[in-house]
Amino acid sequence: MFVMQQRHWKIDGSGGEAIHGTTDEGAHPSCNLIIAHGFKGYKDYGCFPWLARKAAEAGARSHRFNFSHSGMLAKDGPFERADLFEVDTWNKQVEDLKAIVDHCGTPDLPTILLGHSRGGVASLLAVGRGEIDVDHLILLSSPSTCNSLDEKTQQLLLTQGYIESPSSRTNQMLRVGKCFLEEQFEDPESHDLLALATRIEIPITVIHGDDDQTVQLESGEAVSRVAKQGTLLPIHGGNHVFNTPNPFPLDGEASPQLQAVWEALLNIITQL
Predict the structure, then answer these.
(1) Alpha-carbon gap, residue 106 to 122, rounded angstroms
(2) pLDDT band per the 50, 70, 90 thresholds, residue 75
(3) Residue 41 has pLDDT above 70, yes or no
(4) What distance in Å separates the CA atoms of residue 147 and residue 155, rounded to the nearest whole number?
């Protein structure tokens, strides 16, 4: 009989701000799985708890967490630290991933890093820069650039100091601060995703819905094309969250698109 163990934890992330995490595992894990959420996401968003539980049942020690500057603390609710959300940057997320891998990784087990959307960008940055050491990188619905803002929005951000970004989940009006853009202008080479992807020696599995209206499938195609060990898995009819509502119960019936994501992840877990 499978016995699930779940524990909640907190570690220091970028700037000493807290990273809140949850780990699910069975008795004899065979690998580590780290799940990195995307923009305005959090560790309990949508399919993440479901995927973590399924992976644990399949032999993974599954870790999911809230980035230190996500604005989310331990609870599933509103953005309690909108002030941190406003000053989030890619470098801070990379710092967080270093702390996460140090905390969750174990030398005796291989590690899979799975990033959704902008969590995939941060994951690719961390691996491509050589900041973290993992064995397999999975990108779900991830962009192929660090900056997708048009010229007008960039000018507004730099001039005004912030742009507003509403959360439909919490009805909060959040702000993205200009530091997000300034950091990239100061060091464009370390934010060149496609160039970094060419340096990565480990396998990169890119999973992307062909009906993703948030990040087009072409982004996934671009990353998989330049990666040394890149594999593209297009998901027919898949949107940005693989047709999964938020919240999604652990005993919920997965959409065909989410089921396809799970089968791809299971294949990687069993082959490590």
Answers:
(1) 21
(2) confident
(3) yes
(4) 13
Instruction: Return mean pLDDT, the chain.
Output: 97
Q: Is the CB of residue 128 less than 8 Å from the CB of residue 199? A: yes
Distance CA 208, CA 225 (A): 14
User: Taking a C-beta distance cutoff of 8 angstroms, is the pair 47, 241 a contact?
Assistant: yes
Q: Any long-range contacts for 266-271 (C-beta under 8 Å, 24+ apart)?
A: 266/54, 266/55, 266/58, 268/112, 268/136, 268/138, 268/205, 269/30, 269/31, 269/33, 269/55, 269/58, 269/59, 269/60, 269/112, 270/58, 270/59
pLDDT band at 211 (very low <50, low <70, confident <90, very high): very high
Residues paired with residue 140 on neighbouring β-strands, in sequence order: 116, 207
Tell me: the pLDDT tens digits for 9-31? Answer: 999 999 999 999 999 999 899 99
Alpha-carbon span 100 to 20, nearest angstrom: 10
Q: Which helix (H) or strand (E) holds 260?
A: helix 256-271
Percent of the chain that is helix, strand, coil (3-state, to 5): 35, 25, 40
3 state DSSP class of 212: coil
20-79+89-147+188-271: CATH number: 3.40.50.1820
- Residue 233's SS3 state is strand
pLDDT of residue 3: 82
Write down the domain spans for the chain.
20-79+89-147+188-271
Please indicate, yes or no, whether the overall pTM of this predicted structure exceeds 0.70: yes
What confidence score (pLDDT) does residue 1 get? 61
